[in-house]
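Narrative summary of target 7.
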Amino acid sequence: MPRRQLHLNAFLMNTGHHEASWRLPESDPYAHVELDHYVRLARIAERGTFDSLFLADGPQLWGSVGQRPAGALEPLTLLTALATATEHIGLIATASTSYNSPYNLARKFASLDILSGGRAGWNIVTTAGAEAARNFGLDAEPAHAQRYARAAEFLDVALKLWDSWEDDAIVADKETGVWGDDTKIHPPRHRGTYFSVEGALNVPRSPQGYPLLVQAGSSEDGKAFAARYAEAVFTAQQTVGDARAFYADLKSRTVAAGRDPEHIKVLPGLVPVLGSTEAEARAAERALEDHIVYTHGVGNLERLLQLPPGSLELDAPLPADLPPESAIEGAKSRYTLVVELARRDRLTVRELIGRLGGGRGHLTFAGTPEQVADEIETWFTGGAADGFNIMPAVLPSGLDAFVEHVVPILRARGLLRTAYGPRRTLRDRYGLPRPANQHVKQAAPALASAPASTPTPTLVRPRLPEGTAP
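Modeled conformation, tokenized:
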């Protein structure tokens, strides 16, 4: 049996995940809206044989434009361009179930999957925050439970739409003049609490059947949703102990939902800051912290904690009387993580902002390439992760350094592929079967248990890359 290997995802965020990255001499403060920047990053990640890259998104302008490069290119549009500039790497876009309709979004993801030869993924978010709600005619954000109920119905409708064409619905018989088989088209005719969708998708079934389904919420509602639908989970964990507990809980929930726990991959976020020595790495981390403008951090923290402006003092700890997670309607799991971090390490507000500046609650690790590889291996072999969501503090240099110096160590240890193999789709990369079409009753059991090497349908005929590993 082949040795289990890491899944690596490159989380790309403008000039880097550290909020002060744009202030460094090497950084281009306009890079976040330049296609060449993202093409370069995608090709670096592909050189490192990453499984996928990922773009976050939200339907609002976050915070103050004074803090860091603001605004973002629409991710599905950008990833379609990146599909033409890459051959192997998966392309995961964030899109909200709260502020989209199932038909249009299902069509967009099916189109990306077709155009990329089966490399599309969807990071499913429910979108917290009143700012986004007001951009869509609402006075306040919907309640947390309501957002997840809508998301569940949204996914159910999207799955019906992606299955509304059977794989062999296209006949293309020129002699008889029959292009397609109408008996293999299945309109959803869905009537539910949040959505009413009548007709079949106007895009054929894509190479993967449907995109890789990714989810990032770690609240109770988020974990229940992930156990039911998600195939990869991006999570923020500060300690290996917390990560092990989350990993075990999510795998157990997945089994309880009637799914194979191997069909959900847990990828904690990691912000690596590299140096040739540990002292050099620590100095690079301090240099970034020295560029933080703390007034921005205070405002962001007050919004996350749902406190009135002026509630926090830089050199004092967080207030003792913060509300419990149950009272929070926004980003519940991130709220709890930040509060627990501050309490556990007895941080002042200034120190907490410094910790959050690099990864907004994700683990930041400064060290040599060997130390970073050791940390990754400890989590991976210790039941805390199936891989990592790599979040370089500075881009492109941080991703380039990781690929040049950490990836070879992981490969030498047998933890990471040395080349992409002949199996091309994103599901293949994650070791997941191609889902059966729900309307093909006879074939469903065989397809559901098929290995990751199940052939891609001939609707799209990608050239298969050479290699030996998936």
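The first helix runs from residue 35 to 47.
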